[in-house]
């Protein structure tokens, strides 16, 4: 396979200022020879992260970025709270450096207090965790990754990339009983909201690319807050505002797997831009555009939002252009917060996006939500897209405008060099030859949603048409069981046909007017949408 047909060239990335595309002598904007493993749900990710950090010793390097960090969230049992584990590492001599979003005010239901607490705990024992507000107005640093480097032991080097924050509500597993330490959430999800999420563990040369992304942000000489009130508040709280130097970056780990990995980002365009992205970066959006243009058989998507027409245009164009192409989208049934001012705009955005995709694909587009065995809706926080079982992306970015233009985001696009030996030779097969990693990722997620065994029993899901129909049958059976008063045995599976939001005529009219005049479906004033082209 010619990887350049699927992955972005340095020119297509559109950001000549980044060091990412100049790191390798071959001039490629991706690395090969990586081992990539999906970690589905917080419990699996947290357990592996805990083992990696506890194995680090003096002189090792631990770098992390996060949208929100709760120091009392346990990675395992008692004594494994995130703050405790990071502080213990720093006491052992591990070089611990973190960047977390400084956030808006806590009264707006964001994360400033928790992030400040985590930063203070780490710095008290010799680590360094900076509160970073170098974002556009109303934006955030949304990247969620961890890099562990080990001088003299490069075989242990690993980067974790995806959608899982180190905070409350994320510690769930496939049973979806929820995290016993929940954050405030919409009532529909119950007292401990079930949480579906995905991170990946990357080992091999791509670890150096993820680390380079951290270093670009860490070495930015700009003040950590771009507003005078923010700087004054940091000074009043005696918060660290100057990043200490990092040790020189080690050589990339040796190849150890079969996957090409391309690190993709979103950075907004700022008046005084980032030195590593003076005009911003839209490589996530551009990578989706390139991959979707090659889609022939099946687009499988799991996303927290899916509520913007502009962002969904590429999906719609692919569906309209390819009469055999199908799309499955798995999303939360309702937004995460009750009564938020942006909620009607979010709901209008979901309605418009789904209508656009339905016009383009008709019954070849299907929208589902997930519930746990008790019938409680599952909050889908994953950010996963698999195209034709060839190209698979996992990251922090959602299918909404702010993730593609406004916030900082990080994702990895992965293409395995191994053809799947089970590749079906029928018209329902994947168009460009399924790859092992992408197909295994899709099948693992499908098995969970269909209540199938962890391994095997999925050959019928290999052809795209059969997979599409299996999801439809599962959702129809469970919908009918609920509609019939839940009488008789519960059908297998967890999929429900996802309803579109129901707005009163007045609410819908007001939200539509606001969306046209004042804001987009992500709840941001239109003035914040400048330079949004992908």
Notes on the protein architecture:
The chain has 534 residues and is of the alpha+beta class. Helix content is 30%, strand content 18%. It contains 13 helices and 18 strands. The chain has helices spanning 10-13, 42-54, 82-91, 112-124, 206-218, 228-236, 283-293, 309-321, 343-361, 401-405, 436-450, 464-483, 505-517; strands at 31-40, 61-66, 95-101, 128-132, 145-149, 158-162, 195-196, 198-203, 259-267, 281-282, 298-302, 326-330, 365-370, 379-380, 384-387, 391-395, 409-416, 495-497. The chain has a 16-stranded mixed β-sheet that branches. Strands 7-14 form a two-stranded parallel sheet. Helix 8 (309-321) packs parallel to helix 9. The longest helix has 20 residues, at 464-483. It starts with 9 loop residues before the first helix and ends in a 17-residue tail after the last helix.
